[in-house]
Specification:
The protein has a domain at 101-308: Alpha-Beta Complex (Sulfite Oxidase, Chain A, domain 2), CATH 3.90.420. It contains ten helices and twelve strands. The protein has helices spanning 12-15, 18-30, 37-42, 73-78, 92-96, 120-126, 153-160, 198-201, 254-258, 301-304; strands at 105-110, 116-119, 130-137, 142-152, 168-173, 193-197, 207-212, 215-216, 226-228, 241-247, 282-285, 292-293. Strands 3, 4, 7, 8, 9, 11 and 12 form a seven-stranded mixed beta sheet that branches. The chain is globular, with a radius of gyration of 20 Å. The structure holds the ligand Nc1nc2c(c(=O)[nH]1)N[C@H]1C(S)=C(S)[C@@H](COP(=O)(O)O)O[C@H]1N2 and molybdenum atom (MO). Residues 80-84, 136, 138, 173, 192, 221-222, 234-235, 237-240 line the site of the ligand Nc1nc2c(c(=O)[nH]1)N[C@H]1C(S)=C(S)[C@@H](COP(=O)(O)O)O[C@H]1N2. Molybdenum atom (MO) binds at residues 81, 138-140, 234-235.
């Protein structure tokens, strides 16, 4: 997780969306430049001239509630953190493309009255499906805007009825070295595991996602089912979930086990608490060329700040 300074090459896909293409051509015409690849590269969009982004269906541009355009489907599905496949963000998509995501079950148990194992299809049928356009802020100081499809984690938790003893929710990724070649890497306590406090898990922003841009989720994004908690650093949003367990004790999380002082349990996006090795004050939105300020709770303060009342946020990184 220390490759933040690695530059991301401009993909042809960042140039192809027609809205972007035409706006650049207009600029080229206006400035009297000759259209060509060098000229196109030279007038890369700035942060003030927000690039227009299109989805796989080239339908209307989707934006988040702050008005920021969603990243392209290309960007979202080809620049990924998924250490079970590779630590190289651009290698995840090719290495995971044939990963079998069906059949797939999620075991939901622990301190609940109604433990149950669900097929992913059943979850999609049973719970109200929604689109949520969320910012994803990686702890490595890059971000994207992603239109997810999924359902609230609260709806699933209510269905299994947590007992009064349940205080936390523990999530576990599939463990299968044959299918997830990155799990052969030494030094990681596989399987990937994550956790939330029960009240965080019940917050309406927390979803289990099964799709992106209205398409079934691809393996690179965590298919068939992954968590999305947009006010926390990206590593909390665990992919390829096979088990959800309600517990009384705070669960282990893989990144906290590896580096306790770098990746806390809470991991709420907080521009005023730096990572020990880099600043968290700003971020690079994938597809943009200048940095932007990181927002407290990744811009979701209104929805989540009450969860942390009375906590010293400067300590809970
Ligand atoms: N199982 C698992 N989940 C994971 C990861 C991982 O390596 N393994 N990486 C995390 C990190 S660091 C980030 S930033 C997000 C990236 O999600 P995306 O590739 O869909 O953008 O997934 C998170 N979930
Ligand atoms: Mo991340």
């Amino acid at each position: 997780m220390n490759s933040i300074y690695k530059s991301v090459p401009v993909r042809s896909s960042e140039i192809t969306p027609k809205e972007l293409f035409y706006s650049r051509r207009d600029f080229i015409k206006a400035s009297g430049l000759i259209a060509g690849s060098a000229a196109l590269a030279a007038c890369a969009p700035s942060a003030t001239e927000a690039p227009q982004k299109a989805g796989p269906d080239s339908g209307p541009i989707k934006t988040d509630e702050l008005g920021d355009p969603a990243n392209t489907y290309e960007e979202i599905t080809n620049y990924n953190n998924y250490y079970e496949f590779s630590t190289n963000k651009e290698a995840v998509a090719p290495l995971s493309k044939d990963f079998q995501t069906s059949p797939w079950t999620v075991e939901v148990g622990g301190l609940v009255n109604k433990p149950q194992t669900f097929g992913v299809e059943d979850l999609i049928k049973k719970f109200t499906q929604e689109e949520r356009i969320y910012r994803l802020r990686c702890v490595e100081a890059w971000s994207m805007v992603i239109p997810w499809n999924g359902f609230t984690l609260a709806s699933l938790l209510k269905a299994v009825e947590p007992t009064s003893k349940a205080k936390y929710v523990h999530f576990v990724t599939l463990l299968d070295k044959k299918r997830m070649p990155g799990q052969g890497a030494q030094g990681y306590p596989w399987p990937y595991e994550e956790g939330l406090r029960l009240d965080e898990a019940m917050n309406d922003l927390a979803i289990l996602a099964t799709g992106v841009y209205g398409e079934p989720m691809l393996p690179a994004n965590g298919a068939p089912i992954r968590l999305v908690v947009p006010w926390k650093y990206g590593f909390k949003s665990i992919k390829g979930i096979v088990k959800i367990e309600l517990t009384e004790e705070r669960p282990n999380t893989m990144w906290n086990t590896i580096a306790t002082n770098e990746y806390g349990f809470y991991a709420n996006v907080n521009p005023s608490v730096d990572h020990p090795r880099w600043s968290q004050a700003s971020e690079r939105r994938i597809g943009e060329f200048s940095r932007r300020a990181t927002l407290p709770f990744n811009g979701y303060t209104e929805q989540v700040a009450s969860l942390y009342e009375g906590m010293d946020l400067s300590l809970h990184f």
